[in-house]
Design brief:
This protein has 349 residues and is mostly helical. It has one domain. Helix content is 76%, strand content 2%. It has 13 helices and 2 strands. It has a two-stranded antiparallel sheet with strand order 1-2. Strand 1 and strand 2 form a beta hairpin.
Length: 349
């Protein structure tokens, strides 16, 4: 196997690490922030299930990114992933939870501009529309769950000790589901641009065959896991406590809400089922877990009358969402010029 492939793949691994550092907070930041689950426990659960989600359910969303821009050289794929990773790292280092999806989309558009390839405006519009739909949908789900659970607790009169136990177990289950959904939806951001050039051969383990894309996504999942363990604490402080003070029950609602949204946008099976019954379905695209979790937090804040939301922190996060794709596109465009003209690498065909 050509060692140069892994050299170019390193930028995707860096992006995976950045995604783990940034998006782990969206999966279990609220659970850790409310001190209901220890960081190491949540990180271990998230790392396992993010890999499972990436390997077994990550193919659907990656096709949409391929339609937006089919990166047809390894040096080009390397720089697209690296530009997105640098943009995300800059924001993470500033303790701002940003969208890895927006970063990779910005990089792909930057590659399209540089290479002269036409950007499919229909696909781009579809992806950008999810940046609006995603937080709104998460907010609506969170409001519904908040009102239902509030009514249930009031009527059931569960003892506080038992309620605490149920909440802890619920948060652990939510972390697992959230990590699975994150891996399924966002692995396309990390490894999608490398799918066409993946040199792996199918592997069969205990009668289960893993194709070339699944092997690539497994490697990407490991990179995400490393980011979760090594650098996610800074963002957890912002998500877990910064935007709004949360009780353990509200933390559970936030995690479940964002997990459902990510799963809806990644599940090929759900989309097929809805299509069979002529029901409307959402596109299979990578969506931002950061936007989903912030949408869920705002939704609960609205349900509580708008009290307790730290709007200044929210404004800082929103600014990060706007600037991330622009920064990523600019870095990609400039870097492709240097790769082609200084290092004499072919960045597009």
């Amino acid at each position: 196997m050509d060692i140069s492939y892994f050299i170019f793949l390193s930028s995707g691994l860096f992006l995976g690490w950045s995604l783990g550092a940034n998006d782990a907070a969206n999966v279990f930041g609220t659970a850790v922030g409310t001190k209901m689950v220890r960081f190491k426990t949540a990180a271990a659960i998230a790392s396992l299930f993010v890999i499972i989600g990436a390997v077994f359910a990550g193919a659907g969303a990656s096709r949409t990114l391929d339609e937006l821009g089919s990166i047809n050289t390894l040096p080009g794929a390397f720089m697209v992933a690296l530009s997105a990773a640098l943009a995300v790292y800059m924001m993470v280092n500033s303790s701002i939870p940003v969208s890895t999806t927006q970063a990779i989309v910005g990089s792909i558009v930057g590659w399209n501009f540089y290479s002269g390839h036409k950007t499919d405006m229909g696909i781009l519009t579809q992806i950008i529309s999810t940046w609006i739909i995603c937080p709104i949908l998460a907010g609506c789900i969170a409001i519904s769950l908040y009102l239902l659970i509030k009514c249930f607790i009031k009527r059931s009169k569960i003892h506080l000790i038992r309620q605490d136990l149920y909440t802890r177990l619920g948060l652990i289950a939510a972390c697992a589901f959230g990590a699975f959904a994150l891996g399924a939806n966002n692995i396309a951001n990390v490894m999608g641009v490398f799918v066409e050039s993946a040199p792996f051969h199918p592997i069969t383990i205990s009668r289960i065959t893993f194709n070339s894309t699944q092997i690539l996504f497994f490697i990407g999942g490991l990179a995400i896991s490393s980011g979760i363990f090594t650098y996610s604490r800074k963002i957890i402080k912002t998500i877990g406590k910064g935007v709004m003070s949360m009780s353990p029950m509200i933390a559970w609602i936030v995690v479940i809400s964002q997990s459902i949204v990510l799963f809806i946008f990644a599940s090929q099976g759900l989309k097929t089922l809805l299509t069979q019954y002529n029901l409307p379905s959402l596109p299979l695209v990578p969506v931002s877990s950061s936007q989903a979790v912030i949408g869920a937090i705002i939704g609960i804040g609205i349900a509580k009358g708008g009290r307790g939301i730290h709007w200044e922190i929210l404004g800082k996060i929103a600014l990060g969402w706007i600037t991330t794709p622009l920064i990523s596109a600019l870095i990609c465009f400039i870097s492709l010029f240097f790769l082609e003209n200084v290092f004499n690498l072919v960045v597009y065909h």
